Amino acid sequence: MGIGARGGHNACVTAIETTAPGLPAEGTRARVERAALDLFTLRGFEQVTTDEVADAAGISRRTFFRYFATKADAVWGDFAAHVARLEELLAATDPAQPVLASVCAAYVEVNDYAVAELPLLRERMLLILTEPALLAHSQLRFAEVDRVVARYVAGRSGAAATDLVPRLVAATTRAAATTAFEAWLADQRSALGTHLRQAFAELTAGFPGLLR
Q1: The dihedral sign for the CA sequence 123, 182, 110, 139
Q2: Could you tell me which of 201, 204, 149, 156 has the C-alpha nearest to residue 171?
Q3: Which residues carry the record's DNA-binding region feature (predicted)?
Q4: What pLDDT does residue 8 have?
Q5: In the predicted model, what is the mean pLDDT of the chain?
Q6: Structural domain harbouring 88
Q7: What gap in Å lies between CA 122 and CA 101, rounded to an integer?
Q8: Rounded to two decimals, what is the model's pTM?
Q9: Minimal CA–CA distance to 104: which of 180, 186, 191?
Q10: Based on CB atoms within 10 Å of each CB, which residue in 105, 109, 115, 127 is the most buried?
Q11: Is there a contact between 87 and 148 (Cβ–Cβ < 8 Å)?
């Protein structure tokens, strides 16, 4: 990721709104995300202002904040929908399937992206996992995932979501997923799904190669 710091500008404070009347909100949101990711990747997250993102997306500063509370939120996109989808997948799991296997399967499915989505996903995850300014923010986001998983495990096991085991399952499965993403980012020829399945297979088996 190139982090070439260049001076910012504020000309976009008075940017003319170029969004066509009637353009779906999701179209504007996607355009802002794309502009933000491109600028952050090119110059570094902290070197880009919110005004510059708005200018690049062809919208006003005010419109930017209609979609995102902060510029960090533009990196994450609609993460709430991602978390909600994970929760739906967990709720739909087969009760006969072991709890840990159910969580792992849900993680794999929620991260099953179309080929056309992978370049943007790679750009997004590189920023999230390597930009120092985003690492602290990521802990808040990942905590949302942990709560969903812990509640599911608690519901299946009869424990409280705050008990050790539900929290441990949430933390370890998320760590496995994050490690899989890091492996995928390090090898552009690899498949994300392959890394996810391998990481969860090791986790559910208790790292058999280390037990000898």
Answers
A1: negative
A2: 149
A3: 49-68
A4: 36
A5: 89
A6: 78-210
A7: 26
A8: 0.84
A9: 180
A10: 127
A11: yes
Contact assessment for residue 48 and residue 1, using Cβ atoms and an 8 Å cutoff = no
The answer to whether residue 155 is domain-embedded is yes
**Confidence category of residue 6, pLDDT binned at 50, 70, 90:** very low
Overall average pLDDT of the 112-140 stretch? 94
**163-192 confidence digits (pLDDT tens):** 999 999 999 999 999 999 999 999 999 999
Which of 71, 97, 118 lies at the terminal end of a domain, its last residue?
A: 71
Rounded-to-integer distance, Cα 25 and Cα 31, Å: 10
134 belongs to a structural domain: yes
Report whether pLDDT(16) > 50: no
- From the number of C-beta atoms within 10 Å of its C-beta (0-12, 13-18, 19+), residue 112 rates as exposed
Residue 191: per-residue pLDDT:
98
Provide the pLDDT for residue 101: 98
Q: In terms of domains, do 87 and 162 share one?
A: yes
Cβ atoms of residues 111 and 177 within 8 Å? yes
Estimate to the nearest angstrom the gap between the alpha carbon of 12 and the chain centroid.
28
Domain identity same for 53 and 119 = no
Classify burial at 46, counting beta carbons within 10 Å of its beta carbon; exposed 0-12, middle 13-18, buried 19 or more: middle
Residue 167 lies in a domain: yes
